[in-house]
Amino acid sequence: MLDIAAVWLPVTAAVLAVAGITLAACRRRAVTATALGTALGGAFLAVAVAVGRRLTVADLPDPAHQPAVGAVYDALTATLRTVSWLLVALGLTVAVTCRLSGPLVRRRRASEGPAADPAQRPRRVRA
Q1: Which of 17, 82, 112, 115 has its CA 20 to 30 A from that of 126?
Q2: Residue 118: half-sphere exposure toward Cβ, Cα within 13 Å
């Protein structure tokens, strides 16, 4: 069950994020919110791995085994810790980029001038 979830859960999350951004009225805001949610999820994952390590090592009856159990736990969760920090970094980078690109896009659109209204253009009628 975990092998199946490990493949399809991230794919499903990515498809839902893309669908949400595609259907959003304001895409820049949707991308920013998705990026911040990704960063927050990565931070929660990092906290969960750290708390899980502390609880696992603290519940041992013999304190002499704590370094060995800590090393095994660290080896098993090294990929999770790396991915969690990558999610935080990627999410924050995308959110900051979207936030900073907003004024640039608005300035570029304002310099183009007003767009002609297609309803007011004269039309030719063919007989």
Answers
A1: 115
A2: 0
